[in-house]
């Protein structure tokens, strides 16, 4: 996929080097430490607000009953836990199914959600979800798209679109020069996990630009889906059932 880059934005081509989270069998304590640092990035640097901004409109379309949510590539399942206290779902009956392809992630997510009967955790591949069409009202995926190549990304988007009756949201980083140097700064001054220090800047270089994200939607053949930019350096790919 060719990349449209403006002067000062980032390397011309998307990086394909593997992140440590993808290629190494990490010890569970180190994996959990890194994922918690990622969670703080989500919480304080725009990841969660970008998700909530689009999800709130979708939740409003669920007429009574239980709101069924799917979280793909759930990691520590911090977002599902946060959703139970989010104002957009407060007071609603909700069930959240969390899936991840990595057994280590599933073990950590199951531990994290053991006290939440509304949350179910299982192992599944986001590019081949084991659910019927329209099994959920809303499907979400955060910070996983950049881990995939273009073909896998198209499959993920197609699967999200297939299983969600009301809509789906995929949020991720936006590949920009300033985003990369911001990640380098965090790696040098804030993050303590060597995994996060390595993967954080690389994640930006592996991420898509807005134009590349639109091309993924075109290849997936999803009519009416759109790409939104959020501060700072976040993309939200949004589709409606």
Range of strand content: 15-25%
> Given the helix and strand composition, which structural class is it?
alpha/beta
What does the radius of gyration come to? Answer: 17 Å
Q: How many individual β-strands?
A: 7
Number of helices: 9
Main sheet strand line-up: 3-2-1-4-5-7-6
CATH superfamily: Vaccinia Virus protein VP39
Topology as H/E string? HHHEHEHEEHEHHHEE
CATH architecture: 3-Layer(aba) Sandwich
Largest sheet data: 7 strands, mixed
CATH fold assignment: Rossmann fold
Shape: globular
Q: What is the top-level CATH class? A: Alpha Beta
Can you tell me the number of structural domains?
1
Helix content: 40-55%
Low-confidence stretches: 1-8
Tell me the distance between the termini: 27 Å
Mean pLDDT: 90
Protein name: Methyltransferase domain-containing protein
GO molecular function: methyltransferase activity
Keywords: Methyltransferase, Transferase
Organism: Paenibacillus protaetiae
């Amino acid at each position: 996929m060719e990349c449209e880059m403006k002067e000062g934005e980032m390397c011309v081509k998307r990086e394909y080097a593997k992140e440590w989270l993808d290629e190494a069998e990490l010890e569970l304590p180190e994996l959990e430490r890194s994922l918690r640092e990622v969670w703080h990035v989500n919480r304080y640097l725009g990841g969660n607000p970008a998700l909530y901004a689009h999800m709130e409109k979708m939740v409003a379309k669920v007429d009574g009953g239980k709101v069924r949510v799917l979280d793909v590539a759930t990691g520590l399942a911090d977002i599902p836990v946060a959703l139970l206290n989010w104002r957009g779902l407060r007071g609603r009956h909700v069930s959240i199914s969390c899936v991840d392809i990595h057994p280590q992630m599933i073990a950590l997510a199951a531990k994290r959600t053991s006290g939440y009967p509304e949350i179910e955790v299982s192992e599944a591949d986001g590019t081949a979800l084991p659910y019927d069409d329209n099994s959920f009202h809303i499907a979400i995926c955060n910070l996983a798209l950049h881990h995939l190549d273009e073909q896998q990304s198209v499959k993920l988007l197609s699967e999200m679109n297939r299983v969600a009756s009301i809509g789906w949201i995929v949020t991720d980083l936006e590949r920009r020069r300033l985003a990369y140097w911001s990640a380098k700064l965090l790696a040098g001054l804030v993050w303590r996990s060597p995994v996060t220090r390595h993967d954080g800047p690389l994640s930006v270089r592996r991420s898509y630009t807005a134009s590349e994200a639109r091309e993924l939607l075109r290849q997936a053949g999803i009519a009416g889906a759109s790409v939104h930019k959020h501060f700072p350096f976040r993309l939200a790919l949004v589709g409606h059932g």
